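Model: Ready when you are.
Researcher: Fold this.
Model:
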Amino acid sequence: MLGAVAELSELPNSFVKRRLDIEPGDTASGLRGIVFYLWDQLDVLLGFWLVLALVLPATPLRIALSMAIVGAIHPLLTLVGYLLGMRPTAR
């Protein structure tokens, strides 16, 4: 359930990008680029915590730790996916 909700939480980001004519795998520039980068790093956490909070209290410390962990691991996994030919870009 956590995995499904986490994946579904990525859809709004993609939807907004397509409305702004940002191609799949492409990035925006300037302030929009920064906003979308941060949103892309943290959108999974929103869905994850919406479900996980049903069984585990979402304390500020837990949320901050999960943000730090995802913020560190997500870019690393993206790079690995790119190096393995599974992603079109390293971002």
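Researcher: Now this one.
Model:
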Amino acid sequence: MADDVTERGMELRRKMFGPEGAEKRVEAASDFIRPLEDYVTRECFGDTWNRGVLDHKTRSMITIAMLTALGGQGGQIRNHVKGAIANGVSKDEIREILRHAAIYCGVPRSVDAFKNAESMLKEMGLE
């Protein structure tokens, strides 16, 4: 049986990414990847994302900026754009985060992030 932290993590994953990014992703994980999924659910979404100091919207905005700084992380940016929308970040705010990142992280990283963000926004019917 899952503990409270794990349950909070699954609840947030479900809110941000839907069932395909929560239960279905965990259930589909191989024996090799399952420990990582458990860690992400518990430590990332169950603990870190649920600390009371920053709200989920702010954490989403910071996450998009950090992923851009790391060099695109295309699939992760796509996922976190979806999660950001669920957490109340607007399309305009996402655009502004990526525009701001161009100055501090570099234009090539921002261009890649813009492309991945736009792809997810289109998939969500928001572009």
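Researcher: Key takeaway?
Model: Residues 56-123 form a domain with the AhpD-like fold (CATH 1.20.1290.10).
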